[in-house]
């Protein structure tokens, strides 16, 4: 053996990852003391059969290679506790691997396994099993033998069902089933008593299970527990009837129910819900829950909120008025864009006696545009009954083909829903609702989960996290939609372009001129107003002389106002623009119905002149937004495009914020896709082109182009070669990670903020005129960096944000033992607002608010370190560099108060770093998080444990409020909650 190799025989750890090794070096087989071998990210295609000579191995990482098989001799490495084989091309696992009885971690993700490796069930000490990203179709019942399993990843496979025995994994904390083909979950999962995270997104689950999953793991397990107690079989789906007003929708439904025809039937305002009982071609009964929507144009954006994939759609039109007057194509497009390719539409001509024809309906055009979605064309007459039987048969046939028509539901939930439907109440106080559910044997937790699931499915409305709504369960959608319809059609409110005092709304809802059953008692008015805010139909503005006031966005002016506030805003500032184009399933331009109204409500916290009674710069197709020091934006919809232009010292920040929120909003229109484009803009303008800005480049294509090494792209409109960096430089910052070091960013921004502090001392106060564009850019860049860190961390704990706060600092508590090596350490936990990033006790001026003390073991401190380090680093950037809440127009005394506040938070972080060695031999508190691989399930589990301890001491989490931010949740101080509503 060469002398150099001989010196390695005592080696215990060896890392050779990230090289181009194709074959395992022979000398490795002589390193008998080796216990950790890292070969990740090489090009190894096979292992030698002599591999068993490495008897001392406990940790082996062969991930990211090109292995297609394993030698049986790997089973002789009996000391292995961790084996990583992810990212190879393995299509089978040798049976000998079952001999690795000490193995606790096995990662076989991202291979080519077509079946569950039988040998795995022999690994009785296994705690972590990762089989994600394979082709596995079934899980064996013997999986129950893995009694010590705590984390199981089966995501990205082809599973259609799970064995009941999976519920016997009593120690399992996390099960990931995302991205499979599951249509149901075994009720036995509710018996997995340690289960805290059950990820089931991107499956073909029933509507009830999918609705429960949006509420989190606890709701899914509650549903399964109820199903395990008793379940009932149902055959039911949703029937949605839409069309213009007075075309006979309600009469059509009455005819399908076999009811007598009623002359001059009252118009439907809002919506009405009721069952229609039909039979399929085999004579088997099925129930359609029919939703009859009023045809008034002001109600349409509200109606879309109730559209779902599991439904049959009927579009009614009157041929005597013509297809144009019936807006048939409009309604078809509305359904297709909202629901997507899963929509099934019947187009029904009402008032069609024997001599009528189908008006001017262009069936050929409609079928060409939406062939797969249109299930049939029909002619009926509700008065004579002509065509009703044929229509009923056609609808039943379509419904019978819907996925999940037949399913089993928790029996007690079903009984509660039937009783409440028969009772006829439009709404119940929460205490009354819980009283009803207790009579059916439901505990309060199950009853509240039922209310949330029914809300997701559109049956009820219950919003426990919104003030005023947590005390009300709305059982009938028509009761709610009629109230909204009254507000939208109030002539006084329409004359004021949507501006309405809450006192006016109360008078509209409780108008004594209407029949008693159509009036709304004053006790529910506040909840109705909150519901309008929750649905983004309206948002609150500053109180007027009439008292509290809201703006109903659908009623804003259709005329573009004077844009002087935009054109004159700091004309020397840099600008950044992008365009989002919408396309339907046929790749034709399309516009999301009501998008701008929703955006005006969603972005109300940025509304220019928001404090001036809602008279901001907004109209039916655009809005001007202002984010203080972060700049101003003009958002418009024109020709099926949404354009965003930002003026700011550093426009990327506001561009990213708006782009994220818009893109998070667009999935509500399942039938639309989007393409983001950037204009040639200033580059071609500098060259004197008269067509500057008219060429739109596909942003994704440009980014791919740059990745291939290109430096420019040709502008066909301006005849210029435009540098890619000029086109996507700022968007590159949005899309990818920064390359600068943390220390470099910190030093640069700190220097510029020091200059800002000097200005305050010289001037005594600070105004926009005193602050250079460079300083404003520095402040915004720092905020951008902190937001990127927050989003990265919160993405790793996305599910956890539903259940409690995640932002806290951990420090050594001086009152506890500090003896090195002691098993227990006393720590001090400080909760922070996830918006302002300030400690709750500083925001409330109460030194004990959101501050907790616990005795924790050293193992907990070690495993929780990645998240603790992450929050420390984030708060250092966000706290020390850009004091939270910092804006212009600060007096010197205000600035000093903020500095003192930030200093307290920063000292907590430094204390953590100084005591780290005493706690558990940690790395520096400002070390990098290390990506998702380092932030594993062990760290998540420790955070869950800490949060549970905090919740035991303080169930209200120091008064923090859970709000939705895009597609995630944040826990913020009450003073900031309204910004997210």
From TrEMBL:
It catalyses: L-threonyl-[protein] + ATP = O-phospho-L-threonyl-[protein] + ADP + H(+); L-seryl-[protein] + ATP = O-phospho-L-seryl-[protein] + ADP + H(+). Pfam families: COR-A (PF16095), COR-B (PF25497), LRR_14 (PF23598), LRR_8 (PF13855), Roc (PF08477). Residues 230-402 form the Roc domain. It comes from the Bacteria. InterPro entries: COR-A, COR-B, Leu-rich_rpt, Leu-rich_rpt_typical-subtyp, LRR_dom_sf, LRR_domain-containing, LRR_R13L4/SHOC2-like, P-loop_NTPase. The keyword Cell membrane does not apply. The keyword Oxidoreductase does not apply. GO terms for cellular component: cytoplasm. Keywords: ATP-binding, GTP-binding, Kinase, Leucine-rich repeat, Nucleotide-binding, Repeat, Serine/threonine-protein kinase, Transferase. Its EC number is 2.7.11.1. One of its GO terms (molecular function) is ATP binding. This is non-specific serine/threonine protein kinase.
